[in-house]
Amino acid sequence: MKSCDFELSGQLLIDENLAPQHDFEGKCFGFKLPDGRIVRMVMALEIENPDTGNFEYFSDCSKMESIGMTLLDYFKSNFTLI
Description:
By secondary structure, the chain is mainly β. It has one helix at residues 61-66; strands at residues 19-22, 28-32, 38-40, 45-48, 55-58.
């Protein structure tokens, strides 16, 4: 097996009624929904079925390993409020 670094970036539109959640350093790690649930950004793999064009998403390490990928490190995921 060989190691591979990864980088994710992009933008989301967030409803103004969702409350930002900050860690002890003041970084936004997620948003609180009106019912109290907290939404966080996570690492997932997208697997495309070439026959149907459908997609599966694996965020569970054991599912990632089942297709030959082992998540070694996952340091952080923060939102940058604009």
